[in-house]
Amino acid sequence: MANLRSEASNHGIRYLLTQYWQENGNPRTTGLPLIREGPWCTFFVIGIYLLFVTKIGPSMMRKRQPYTLRLPMLIYNSSMVVINFYFMFKSLFWLDYGRELANFKYPLWNSERYETEEAREEVWSFYLYWLTKFVDLFDTIFFVLRKKDRQISMLHLYHHSIVPILGWYYIWYVFAVPAVNLFAFLNSTVHVIMYSYYALAGLGPHIQPYLWWKKYITQIQLIQFLLLGIYGVFVYHFSVGYPPFAFWLASSQPPIFFALFANFYIQSYRKAAKKVE
């Protein structure tokens, strides 16, 4: 009897680890690498990332001089400008150039709309966009190697950790929701501006006088989450067929991000300005 219970328990664990995610997700996306295995690979990568940037990396660098990394960072930031510029335009296509924002009906998995070649291409292109969220993690690693630990804030870690996790859930279960595609558009636009700033800053001190617009990046980020929050109100009032858990999970993020970015802005610019006065 004990052996039967143990076998049943093991079967249940194996089912939860693999088969459950393939049977209950969107059939158009559950075959993708890192999606079909469940969220575990994403959790593992984020866990290793957090462990490195908060413990292993700072400990490793404690007795070392900071690395300059000017060329690698210039290549990285310039590449991210190009990548995000590409996905900024791709997300406009996913939104049908804004028309999809007026569609408040939850997309059905068996809809003929998602049987087209364009729909299959959208799956792959958004999947590639999601993979870039892991590439974003390298900017924290650069902070660690350059001993810029003060820039690794709670906001920074939360942002880089939660976006890949929510992206996995979106691809696995609620693919083609306009609100998330709106996030992709706004997020890519902000990242074009942000990585452009970092790329220019990497050119050396002579370019610093022209980088007076740094604080406006945070203001644009605040506007981004304000717009997402406003759109979430419309989704709440007009949506049809949205799973409650998926809706509340997504709608909780704009207020959280807005509060974190607002606190960062106040700490970095408002209080700093008062000290100068």
TrEMBL record:
One CC-aspect GO term: endoplasmic reticulum membrane
Annotated transmembrane regions: 34-53, 74-95, 127-145, 157-176, 222-239, 245-266
Keywords: Fatty acid biosynthesis, Fatty acid metabolism, Lipid biosynthesis, Lipid metabolism, Membrane, Transferase, Transmembrane, Transmembrane helix
Family named by the database record: Belongs to the ELO family.
EC category name: transferase
Membrane topology: Multi-pass membrane protein
Annotated EC: 2.3.1.199
A GO term, aspect molecular function: fatty acid elongase activity
Protein name in UniProt: Elongation of very long chain fatty acids protein
